[in-house]
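A quick aside before the break. I want you to see a complete sequence-to-structure record at least once, exactly as it would be stored in a machine-readable document. Don't worry about memorizing anything.
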Amino acid sequence: MRFKLITTFCAFLAILGLVVTQAKATTWDLNTSNVNLGISGNFASVDISVTGNTATFTIDANQALLGGGDNFGIDKFFFNTTLSGITASDFSAVSGWDVRTSQNASDFGLFEFLYKGTGSTRMDPFTFTITDSSITSALDFYDANSSGFHFVAHIAGFSDLNGNTSAFFGDGAPGAPGAPVPEPGTIVLLGAGLLGLGLFGRKRMKG
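That is the input. The structure line, written in tokens, reads:
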């Protein structure tokens, strides 16, 4: 009886971790620039978490890598979606920003949506939400364009890098985009459940 309870609990942890990993919070790194800045690394990150039918986007520029002053921040964010019913009215309102469709992100190609600010409304991080009954997962917004990119952010106001103080940043080289990274908590849940199942399975076989 005790063995069955422990096995059931471990299985529950594994399933819970898998479900949350697939559907709730995911982070991608933007590590490719449209210009040669003379440095490399993760220039920004895109985090999407889903609660109910609301997706919360947080785009965080890496000021420690790029440097920058008081007007450093993100003023454009491009992405696609696999969902056909998303419209501009589903976006949360951000003062000084507006939603545009079918926009080009420099060398990264065409994207379905652009949330655009101005030089005076730059943000770091930039956060907004999209609410629609069809939203179930962060992966609803992980949809590559024809050039192989999923997300692009324009960041401005950083230190002079090879003569550049602004640039577009995407999520990997064309044809080899970055893979989503589950939040650490979900990995722990999944790992604990699978480890527990393995250990107690071996113990039962030895017994």
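Two observations worth writing down. The CA atoms of residues 26 and 182 lie 5 Å apart. The chain has three helices and 13 strands. We'll return to this after the break.
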